[in-house]
Amino acid sequence: MDSLPVHFFHAIFGYVPGGVTISNELQINGQIRDREVRLIGVHGEQLGIMSAREAQKLADEAKLDLVKVAPQAKPPVCKIIDYGKYRYEMARKAKEAKRKQKQIELKEIRMSPNIDSNDLMTKTKAARKFLEKGNKVKITLRFRGREMAHVSASRHILEEFAESLEDIASVDKAPKMEGRSMSLVLAVKKN
């Protein structure tokens, strides 16, 4: 590892020389330019306040990295850890947290103002399936040509659509004109 050039690590970990890091990366080893740091040892023990050079020496003796974990503290807090392992653990925790999150998607159903009642029932069934999965549904009426003259008369289609799903859904956003289309957003009712 000692034989690899410094710019190799900069390319992999996203560092810029001079202690500046790209994005929210932590400063490690030679990037720490503070005069004094509060040092936490390998096993989590407080080693006290010391110069950054002394802290780096202790990290080198342990054959680990000196990582600034709390840059806003006075003095900044540094920890002696294996940085590669630390990054791996943080990435794994972030991935796990993301997996546990429920992503609510916005599904769209498009219709024309002169839709037949059977087609409307089919669209209602599709919307019901989306809502049962926990997604929001945007119902859009698209107006073409002369249909634009009867926009206000077509509002009832969206209102009937919302009424047919009122047992599981509530209106999140009321019917609204957006260019040549009128849309309504339905969300799952919260019990």
Automatic annotation (TrEMBL):
Its main location: cytoplasm. Gene3D superfamilies: Translation initiation factor 3 (IF-3), C-terminal domain (3.30.110.10), Translation initiation factor 3 (IF-3), N-terminal domain (3.10.20.80). InterPro entries: T_IF-3_C_sf, T_IF-3_N_sf, Translation_initiation_fac3_CS, Translation_initiation_fac_3, Translation_initiation_fac_3_C, Translation_initiation_fac_3_N. Residues 104-188 form the Translation initiation factor 3 C-terminal domain. SUPFAM superfamilies: Translation initiation factor IF3, C-terminal domain (SSF55200), Translation initiation factor IF3, N-terminal domain (SSF54364). Residues 28-97 form the Translation initiation factor 3 N-terminal domain. GO terms for biological process: ribosome disassembly. One of its GO terms (molecular function) is ribosome binding. One of its GO terms (cellular component) is cytosol. Pfam families: IF3_C, IF3_N. It is found in: Cytoplasm. It comes from the Bacteria. Keywords: Cytoplasm, Initiation factor, Protein biosynthesis. Monomer. Belongs to the IF-3 family. IF-3 binds to the 30S ribosomal subunit and shifts the equilibrium between 70S ribosomes and their 50S and 30S subunits in favor of the free subunits, thus enhancing the availability of 30S subunits on which protein synthesis initiation begins. This is Translation initiation factor IF-3. It comes from Shuttleworthella satelles DSM 14600. The lineage of its organism: Bacteria, Bacillati, Bacillota, Clostridia, Lachnospirales. The gene is infC.
